[in-house]
Design goal:
Helix content: 40-55%
Strand content: 5-15%
CATH architecture: 3-Layer(aba) Sandwich
CATH superfamily: P-loop containing nucleotide triphosphate hydrolases
Distance between the termini: 79 Å
CATH topology: Rossmann fold
Number of strands: 4
Radius of gyration: 21 Å
Shape: globular
Order of helices and strands: HHHEHHEEHHHEHHHHHHH
Length: 303
């Protein structure tokens, strides 16, 4: 007996289910292109309204460990288990901050942003999370390829990264300089956190951040939050709640420290350091011709 084909609507439904998902849309690509022009400035100005003196910003250049930090801090601040949807719904970014939850003492919100410091009078208190830009570059390269925002090779991307903004947030070195030269730097209202330090000892790192936020969190709570935000756990969360970059790869990267030493050529590293060397040194990172001992000496000064 020959099996009869399904009706037209069933066939259409099946075709739609089998149609491969796209990591992004033409409209999103256009918006990204426009975001790297001066056209975004009025939008950024419009979004910077409705803040409270009790709010604290968690600031970083993209691919610097922000997602991992927000998930961990969400559990420390709320006692709830984190997930992509619940974190984004409560620890909102600039522009959606009016939807954020009051998770800080005095009714403050923890608001995320990748923006440079532009003299906004609203930035009263901030955590500035930084990561070695040579590792940031590799993570951003993979991320933008997954989203089909960049099609060139790594050589082309390195030059693009240090000279032409790969996003609306400017080159890494300019972003770092904007915050380290801001009126907040060197005051009790800015907490500078290096990704590498908090990755090496996350319990101590997030304890320091919790204290900066004025939150009394037990060691057990912080340890539990750190354990539930491990790389394995974060990737499990991404499988349950995929994001756009999950279509062609992973949004949650490996979070490597000094991965650039085996993945970038000497020529590529020297080009990066030509532009970003002063800021890398300022943050205590060693350059290609410097020894780890020199980095340790600078870190002791920063500490």
């Amino acid at each position: 007996m020959t099996k009869q084909p399904g009706n037209a609507s069933e066939n259409r439904s099946g075709a739609e289910e089998q149609k491969p998902r796209k990591p992004t849309t033409t409209m999103r690509k256009l918006r990204r292109k426009l975001s790297r022009t001066s056209l975004r400035l009025p939008i950024i100005w419009y979004r910077h309204h409705g803040f409270r003196p009790e709010d604290t910003f968690i600031v970083s250049y993209p691919r610097s460990g922000t997602t991992w930090s927000r998930h961990t801090l969400f559990e420390i601040l709320t006692g709830q288990k984190s997930g992509f949807r619940i974190v984004d719904a409560n620890l909102c970014g600039v522009g959606k901050h009016h939807l954020g939850s009051s998770v800080l003492p005095g009714g403050g919100r923890l608001i995320s942003t990748h923006e440079q410091y532009r003299g906004w009078k609203h930035y009263h208190k901030a955590i500035y999370l930084v990561r070695d830009c040579r590792d940031v570059l590799l993570s951003e390269f993979q991320y933008l390829q997954n989203l089909e925002f960049f099609y060139g090779d790594l050589d082309k991307f390195v030059k693009h990264f240090v000279t032409t903004p790969v996003s609306g947030f400017g080159p890494w070195q300019r972003h770092v300089a904007s915050w380290l030269d801001s009126p907040l730097y060197g005051t009790p209202n800015l907490c500078l956190v290096r990704f590498e330090d908090i990755k090496r000892d996350p319990v101590a790192g997030f304890t320091r951040v919790a204290e900066f936020l004025g939150v009394e969190a037990s060691p057990e709570l912080i340890q539990r939050a750190v354990a539930n935000s491990s790389l394995e756990k974060m990737r499990e969360k991404e499988v349950r709640e995929p994001v756009k970059a999950s279509v062609k790869g992973r949004f949650v990267g490996a979070g490597e420290v000094r991965g650039w030493r085996s993945k970038l050529t000497e020529k590529q590293v020297r080009l990066i350091e030509k532009y970003a060397g002063p800021e890398l040194t300022r943050l205590g990172y060693s350059l290609l011709d410097q020894t780890p001992e020199m980095e340790s000496q600078r870190n002791s000064v920063l500490a």
